[in-house]
Specification:
With 204 residues, this protein is α/β, with parallel strands linked by helices. The chain has a single domain, classed as Flavodoxin domain (Rossmann fold). 40% of the residues lie in helices and 16% in strands. The protein is built from 6 helices and 6 strands; from the N terminus they run βαβααβαβαββα. Strands 1, 2, 3, 4, 5 and 6 form a 6-stranded parallel sheet that branches. β4, α5 and β5 form a beta-alpha-beta unit. It is globular and about 55 Å long.
């Protein structure tokens, strides 16, 4: 089984990446194949709202999205790691999730007429196990964390948590010091254990 972890920060080897790698390392210890995807060096435009994916079942925008979307589809588990910018996730991660969620829904469903109601068949992410991770210097965690949870729950995924929220406190003065947040590391390690347990149970 494979788990893909996203570093949604523009910074490589920063606090977000450290915490995502903390989770991936724990999963590797439990025998999972893992992959870290850094969004900072990827080109991901925002959704244009063209609705071409309803018919074509693929995104009309030519950039790095399609390759990343395929990795998401092939993974059993997805870790969404994000820094907190003004109490929110950064634009590139938001663009990825908007497009992935929209395409993922229409890949599994057809649009109905205006006077019809939907009985959704699921999405391209149905049954995948998802966990959010956010990191902030001090505040704003809950809204950014909620953004990731809302994406996961509307896309028919199974969300795993920990014995506290999967958040890290780091970055005062721009420092890369998430390795000093022992409580956060413990929470995220336990989250990875929970993800491993759920994935193993689903594959029985």
């Amino acid at each position: 089984m494979k788990v893909i972890g996203f570093n949604g920060s523009p910074r490589e080897n920063g606090n977000t990446e450290f915490l995502v790698e903390t989770a991936l390392n724990q999963l590797r210890k439990r025998g999972f194949e893992t992959e870290l995807v850094r969004l900072g060096d990827k080109k991901i435009e925002q959704c244009s709202g063209c609705y071409s994916c309803v018919e074509k079942k693929e995104c009309s925008i030519t950039d790095d999205f399609s390759q990343i979307f395929q990795k998401m589809i092939e993974a059993d588990g997805i870790i969404l790691g994000s820094p907190v910018y003004h109490a929110s996730i950064p634009p590139k991660l938001k663009a990825l999730l908007d497009r992935a969620g929209f395409l993922g829904r229409w890949a599994a469903n057809d649009m109905k007429s205006e006077d019809s109601t939907y009985q959704w068949k699921g999405t391209a992410f149905s049954g995948k196990v998802v966990a959010p991770i956010t990191v902030a210097r001090r505040a704003g965690q809950t809204f950014a964390f909620a953004q990731l949870l809302l994406w996961a729950t509307v896309n028919d995924t199974i969300v795993v948590g920990s014995n506290y929220w999967n958040v890290g406190v780091a970055g005062t003065g721009g420092k890369v010091d998430a390795d000093q947040d022992t409580e956060g590391i413990g929470n995220i390690t336990h989250m990875a254990d929970n993800m491993a347990y759920v994935l193993n149970q689903l594959k029985k």
